[in-house]
Structures are given as structure tokens and as C-alpha cells.
Amino acid sequence: MAVAAYPRYSVSEAKKIKSGQVTVTGIISSLSTQYWVISNSKWECPSCNQVGSQNYIPSRMFPPKHLDNTSGTEIKCFDCSSTAFTVSHEYHTAKTIQVIDAGNNHMKITIHLK
Ligand SMILES: [Zn+2]
């Protein structure tokens, strides 16, 4: 298997990195079941013609409160309060793996599955 040559870090070093691609050396100690995450929300209001979208990095389990049409509560346009306001979310399946290294450092990593 070909592996890209990213900088190699221990788990404790990798935990300090804010972003970027690295190789982490460790053992997978647990693997979650599959779950859904949201990577983007788009909204549209036919009353005031507002449209917009927002990317989530990292992805989220739930939309932000003002865009949350998943909980059964009615959402309204945040400009004109119209209930014709619609929101759609882009979902991905994900799993979380926990990696542990020889120094007993551990971290959780979320993987998006296509
Ligand atoms: Zn509106």
C-alpha cells in the first residue's frame, strides 16, 4: 500500500497540531460504529431572497441552532422571520477511531467515509 510521505508524529505530538496532514504512529485501540456528520448547510428564504451556505470544519453532529431543522422545531429566517425559510444539509458517514501510542497518549480521529 502506498502511503504519502507526510511528516511522522507520535500521538502526543499530533495532538498539538491544529491542521494539516501528518502520519501518526500508534495502535488503533477502538473504532466507533458509523454515524452521520454534517459538513455544509445551505439556506434560502423565498420571502426576502436571502441565500447562503456555511461549511463546517470540523464537521458537526448537529447543525447550529439557527439552522437546525432536524429537531422538529420550526425555524425562521434570521433576517425577516419568514417560516418559508428552508435549510438543507450535506451529510457524510463517519467513524471515529481512537489511537494510542507506546507512551499511553491517545487521541480520537474522525474519518469521513464516502
Ligand atoms: Zn427572509
Mean pLDDT: 91
Write down the Rg: 19 Å
Bound molecules: zinc ion
- Beginning-to-end CA distance, first to last residue: 20 Å
Largest sheet properties: 5 strands, antiparallel
Element string (H = helix, E = strand): EHEEEEEE
Spans where pLDDT lies below 50 across 5 or more residues: none
The best one-word shape is elongated
Structural class: mainly beta
What is the total tally of β strands? 7
In DSSP terms (H or I, runs of 4 or more residues), the helix count works out at 1
Strand content: over 45%
Sequence-ordered SSE layout with sheet pairings:
Layout: E1 8-10, H1 11-14, E2 23-25, E3 27-31, E4 35-45, E5 50-60, E6 86-100, E7 106-113
Parallel strand pairs: 1-2
Antiparallel strand pairs: 3-6, 4-5, 4-6, 6-7
Bound molecules: zinc ion.
Describe what this molecule looks like in 3D:
With 114 residues, the chain is mostly beta strands. It has one domain. It has one helix spanning 11-14; strands at 8-10, 23-25, 27-31, 35-45, 50-60, 86-100, 106-113. A hairpin with a 5-residue loop joins strand 6 (86-100) and strand 7 (106-113). The protein is elongated. Bound molecules: zinc ion (ZN). Zinc ion (ZN) is lined by residues 45, 47-48, 50, 77, 79-80, 82, 85.
What keywords describe this structure?
single chain; 114 residues; mainly beta; five-stranded antiparallel sheet; two-stranded parallel ribbon; 7 strands; 49% strand; binds zinc ion
Structure summarized in a few sentences:
The chain is mainly beta and 114 residues long.
